[in-house]
Amino acid sequence: MAMKQQTLTRLLFLLLCLPGLSCMEEEPYKLAYSGFTPQELQDGWSLSTPEQENMSRSKLNQVFSVAYREERFRLLRSITIIRNGNIVAESYAHDPQDIGRIQNVKSVTKSFTSILTGIALQRKVLDSLTQPFSTIFPEYFSNRPEKRNITIEHALTMKTGLQYNDEEHHYNFYFSNNIIEYVLSSPLNGPPGQLFSYSDDNPTLVSYAIQRKYGKSMAEFAREYLFTPLGITDWQWESSRDGVSFGGSNFYLKPRDMAKFGQMLLQNGKWQGRQIVDSTWIAEATRDRYANGYGYYFWLLPDLRSYCAAGHGGQYIIVVPYKNLVVVVTAWPYMQDTDWLRDNFLGTLLKDIINACS
Amino acid sequence: MVDSVLLSSLQLGTRSKETPVQKLSMKEKMKTILLVVFILLGVPVFGQQVSMPGCEQYFGYSLGFDNIKEENLLPKIHTGVMHMFSYGLDLRGERYHRFQLRLGYGNIKTDIEREAGTYHGHVAVTYFQGFKIFEREKVQFYFGPRASFTSSLYEYEVWDEAHAHWGNFLSLGLGNSVALLVGERKSFLLHFDCTLLGLYTRPDPYRLYANEYWTFSNIVKLMNSHYRVGSVNNAFQLNASAEYRTPLFRSSALSFSFSLFYSRIKADVGKPLREFTPKLSMGVWL
After folding, report:
1. pLDDT tens digits, residue range B122-150?
2. A299 lies in the same domain as A265
3. Would A202 be classed as within a structural domain?
């Protein structure tokens, strides 16, 4: 009997050993750091070196080493550094193939919406910033008199007053068959123009205004007046079920094309000699409009004398005019612990990158 | 009741048919069994069920340790507790017909998440038909084909707020079952099966555009489109279990078991989904 029990014990032990066969190894998200030399891709960018652009190679090496090594940057995907219009450094921490992959830039989308608004004004697609939405799509306001004076500028500054919360409304927002009706059905927190409330609904009102006046979606407007001039060919822009481009998120782009957008901002709206958007619009959009660190869908970084387009989880296009510098960062758009990259990157590594410029 | 029937059947076999195996010591008998199980079949053989002819039903609950690695999404392992409810139906005679239905639910997380934000639903339907290969005193061994359908659905809210991820596998394979009588109406059962080929479906790894519409019908439709044929290189599953059964009442038995489920499903494009779930189960045979 004892022998039988011993054999059974051995059998059970064998079963317990099977987990070892499962090949469920935890792999690091980031690769080992192997340098930041940019790749030649024939995509409209010229490449350079830190020395040629008066940047410290050792300081940049330190930045990349820290970003690769430290756990606080655990979901980092890429860093691209452009100085004087040339790519000086880039590295893809998760997968080298990311250089050719589009990814969701999350709320960086809003900054694209901002620039498209400027182009729409410049091209007289939109009349003015003070134009109420109720004059562009009046059918949505017939039974909402309290919302008839919501203007494009209110939406650009997140001050429509609509009581909308991204987390609470996310699902219905994306699956609404009539997204504008859904957005405008939210009650008002207060009169338009007073309360700042950051959300995805306001930029979508702007997107729909451009669509109504242009006759095609904002994504198509962007294709003609922004992406084609910038040489951006690989992109996707999600739209609602009724065909309205989401103005606040879910736009997909490659890191180097994000950098083109940043460089165009740095050059006051010009790209390769062509004026894409008025420089005055960029100045207006990147000015702290209500002392809340926010312009027209751009965040201001006064301590660093710079501004940025910022997206959830660590997507950034950072423009540092006084150093003629653009920095693009992408990361996994992880949903918990939302500030992990913002606090760490902007607070430390961005300063180090700026300090690497002489 | 179940085990007493088995006991009498095995004892009857002992009286009517003296074999050299029966004269061996218990240690040697076990070695013989292991030889058959591990060498002749080339795989470890574990099984379940000790019932004799007649219909038996099993109702059980399992507590598992869910390990998931969806590499299309990220190279991290999600772990957590899995709850599973099982129903089984057995017909055992010269052939052994075994049907199982398992429904599981897990709430899992990676090591960097503060709280579990990923949900895992699992459905498995398995049928095994075993042919009696070996029968000695207190031992029965069946070997034969098995077919199954397993479906795992994941919602990684923290990592991918837009998409469902899944691995479905309609498979054919081989299984075997060993029943050992270990005491008065008490039995120990081993079962092992694995897949050889089948139809599988995985999501497109590059679905970047458009949130999925999370209705039941849409998700079922989405999960069951674009099936491809594949063998062990693309899709492989393994089930192993060890069960101890002891009488409860006259016609029922209490069952305790430890089991393992391993699955790897990889489409031609993209990376694999791996699941590994060791489970402890408790149930009744009626």
Report:
1. 999 999 999 999 888 889 999 999 999 99
2. yes
3. yes
Whether A21 contacts chain B with CB within 8 A: yes
Among A219, A251, A239, A222, CA closest to A107: A251
Nearest CA in chain B to A105: B208
CATH number at residue A159: 3.40.710.10
- A43 in a structural domain: yes
Q: What is the pTM of this model?
A: 0.82
Q: How many CB pairs under 8 A join A and B?
A: 88
Domain B2-285 classified CATH 2.40.128.100?
Answer: yes
Copy the structure tokens of residue A253.
Answer: 């782009």
The domain tally of chain A equals 2
Of B34, B208, B274, the CB nearest to A24: B274
Pair A111, A246 in one domain = yes
For A245, nearest residue in chain B (alpha carbons): B210
Produce one character per residue of B235-262: b if its CB has 16 or more CB atoms within 10 Å, e if not.
bbbbbbbbbbbebeeeeebebebbbbbb
Show the tokens assigned to A269.
């709206």
- Asked if B182 and A236 come within 8 Å (Cβ–Cβ), the reply is no
Q: Which residues pair with A310 in a beta bridge?
A: A316
The residue range of the domain holding A37 is 27-101+254-358
Nearest to A22 among B76, B182, B276 (CB): B276
Q: Mind listing the pLDDT tens digit for each residue in A16-65? A: 555 545 557 788 889 999 999 999 999 999 999 999 999 999 999 999 99
ipTM above 0.85, yes or no: no
Q: Are residues A208 and A307 in the same domain?
A: no
Q: Are B30 and A21 within 8 A, CB to CB?
A: no
pLDDT digits (tens, 9 = 90+) for B58-67: 999 999 999 9
CA-to-CA distance for A358 and A57, rounded, in angstroms?
11
A10 located within any domain:
no
